[in-house]
Amino acid sequence: GEQYSGSLVGNSPEGSGTYTWSDGSTYEGQWRFGVRHGYGKLQWPSGAFYEGEFSGGYINGSGSYTRSDRAVYNGRWRLNLKHGLGYQTYPNGDIFEGSWIKGAPQGHGKYTWTNGNVYMGNVNGGKISGKGTLTWTNGDSYEGSWLDGHMHGFGVYTWVKLYGGGTYVGTWTRGLKDGKGTFYPKGRKILESSQQMYLNALRKRGLLPDLRKQNNNNRVVNNVSLERRWSMSEIVLEGGVDDDDEMMNIDIDMPILEREYMQGVLISELVLSDRFCKRREKRLAREIKRPGEQIIKGHRSYDLMLSLQLGIRYSVGRITPIPMREVRTADFDPRSGYMRSFPKEGSPQTPPHQSEDFKWKDYCPIVFRNLRAMFKIDAADYMMSICGNDALRELSSPGKSGSIFFMSQDDRFMIKTLRKSEVKVLLRMLQNYHLHQCRYENTLLTKFFGLHRIIPSSGQKFRFVVMGNMFCTELRIHRRFDLKGSSLGRSANKVEIDENTILKDLDLNYCFYLEPSWRDSLLQQIEIDSKFLESEQIMDYSLLLGIHYRAPQNLQDEISPRGLVLVPRGSDDVSVIVGSHIRGSRLRATTSSTFGDEEVDLLLPGTARLQIQLGVNMPARAEHIPGHDGGSTHRQMFHEAYDVVLYLGIIDILQEYNTTKKIEHAYKSVKFNSVSISAVDPTFYSQRFLGFIKKVFPPNSVVV
Question: Where are the transmembrane segments (predicted)?
Answer without folding.
Answer: none
